[in-house]
Design goal:
The protein is α+β, with helices and mostly antiparallel strands and 224 residues long. 26% of the residues lie in helices and 42% in strands. It has helices spanning 47-68, 114-123, 139-164; strands at residues 18-29, 33-44, 75-89, 92-108, 128-135, 167-169, 175-185, 207-221. Strands 1, 6, 7 and 8 form a four-stranded antiparallel β-sheet that branches. Strands 3-4-2-5 form a four-stranded antiparallel β-sheet, covered by helices on one side.
Length: 224
Amino acid sequence: MYNQRPAIHHPQPPSDNLIKVTGEGEIAVQPDTASVNLGVVTEDKELVEAQQQNSTISTKIIDSLLALGIDKNHIQTFDYRIEPDYEYVEGKAIFRGYKVTHILQVKIDDLSLVGKVIDTAVQNGANVVANVRFTTKFKDAYYQQALALALKNAGDKATTIAATIRVTLNPTPILVMEVGSTVQPFESQQLMFAKGVSSTQIEPGQLLIKASVIAEFKYRPING
């Protein structure tokens, strides 16, 4: 007969003594960089003619932007398309010719030039202007600040909950998950189609940089 030693059970802390919260942080910053999509759509019954017209105007637009001081590396083709153009009459498709679209994406470091870039492009033949966007070169640094605010917000929420239910909170979270980030303007500037614009005023406003986290904190009864 063997003598068995009694099993020793070590008490485990309750696994459900957790407070789970979300935290959000945001900061407003001034943008320092802009981009705009602009270009030209040409139409002609002959494809070669439509392409040549488009090429001539696109070159003129690019040259005018370079003359403004825009870096050549900051001008790139965003979209180039050739499409047949049809008119539908009584359910029948009638071929009208070809449509050639060439859209450029222009990056602008000097925000005071945004309106002038648009006006200059239009004056030199651009008939499409769209997606004026503002951003910052220091997005990552600003995001780190927003992230710190989000974690503090989560900690403040957990503290409030712990005080309300009368428990002792471990202020150091056992889990932190980054769940989202956004960079958005207070007001989005959109010019979908421009023709004959004489003076375009574009205001950059401010950017909102947001961060979100989920955090879990352990707690114990006050007398525990």
